[in-house]
Amino acid sequence: MAQHRGELPKAYDYGRIGTPTSAAFEQAVAALYDAEACISTPSGLSAITTAILSVVKSGDHALFPDSLYGSSRRFVTSLLSDLGVEVSFYVPRANADIAGEFKENTSLLYLESPGSLTFELQDIPAMTTLARQQNVTTICDNTWGTALHYPVLKLGVDIVVEAATKYIAGHSDVNLGVAAASGQEGKKLKAIARTLGICAGPEDLYLGLRGLRTMRLRLEQSGENGILLAEQLNNHPLVKEVIHPALPGSPDYAIYSRDFSGPCGLFAFVLTDSIPQDRLDKAVENMDIFAIGDSWGGYESLIKQAHLNSNLRQFTPEHTPGHLIRVYAGIEHGPDLWADIEAMLDRLT
């Protein structure tokens, strides 16, 4: 009774605020990032929105890369603007030039490296240093790099977010998100999640814990398969460009080599736009291993065509024009995956 009156402390008092299961999962993720605090949320997007709301308030200005994940973009251009936050987009490879985008009321610099669909890397150390000089908080979506391959907090980021639906859970059977930080940012994350009633369910948290046990093995296999496919595609006559930051020919390879310890299996390539759309549709639909889908990070390989329009981009992307194809290499046998893609390309000739 004294605990319920607040006279004595207790570890857990309300399931939405925390349970032994949520604590185990959050502490594991925080340990991977060397962070003091972590929140778990029911999706990657909810982790992103909760993190953003822990930083901005009405009257603030927030900066977002033009390569922002589409669902995040919908949030910042609709609800965030409705809350009185001024939103601006910047070219993804702004790097040191980001200093020219700051205003007196800028409170947030949001980073996504690589960018969604077009995979531009950002110079995180340079951009976070400039942000700190202006007392601007930084958030980075690190779903591609993960804590295992891209230690963004150590590179200067204040708050990291991930769609744990992807590599952390790893089996395409759960929606889950995480956000981690230290110091005041970590305390604000915890406070805003509690105020908004944001929490992940017990079964989802259990599946997240299960996924963490095999994450390194899955990530390494997926990354190796992605490199294998990217290298093969780079030599195919129908492919105009392969967009993978871990390839030596990438414009971002220097940043990748400096900041990352490994790749993941997600990348894109561009096919000549002389290929009729209906022929491309049929060729992809008849693939044996690759399924058409969006939510990558599981054990199964996926493929989709990306259609970038004015709703998704303010600036013209820097990749070669043509059919933009996004590939996620799962953990199947790499040569089998290449045979499936090669057969798809053969059907286009």
Question: Could you outline the blueprint of secondary structure elements for this entry?
Answer:
Layout: H1 20-33, E1 37-41, H2 44-53, E2 61-65, H3 70-82, E3 86-90, E4 106-112, H4 124-133, E5 137-141, H5 146-149, E6 159-163, E7 177-181, H6 183-196, H7 202-234, E8 239-243, H8 253-259, E9 266-271, H9 277-285, E10 291-292, E11 302-306, E12 323-328, H10 334-346
Helix pairs in contact: 1-7, 7-10
Tell me the helix content.
Answer: 25-40%
Measure the end-to-end span: 76 Å
Low-confidence stretches: none
Mean pLDDT reading: 96
Structural commentary:
By secondary structure, the chain is α/β, with parallel strands linked by helices. The protein has two domains: 20-210, Type I PLP-dependent aspartate aminotransferase-like (Major domain) (Aspartate Aminotransferase, domain 2); 215-346, Aspartate Aminotransferase, domain 1 (Alpha-Beta Complex). It is 36% helix and 17% strand. The strands form two sheets. A seven-stranded mixed beta sheet has the order 1-7-6-5-4-2-3, sandwiched between helices. Strands 8-9-12-11-10 form a five-stranded mixed beta sheet, with helices on one face. It is globular and about 75 Å long. It starts with 19 loop residues before the first helix and ends with a helix. The model has no long low-confidence stretch (mean pLDDT 96).
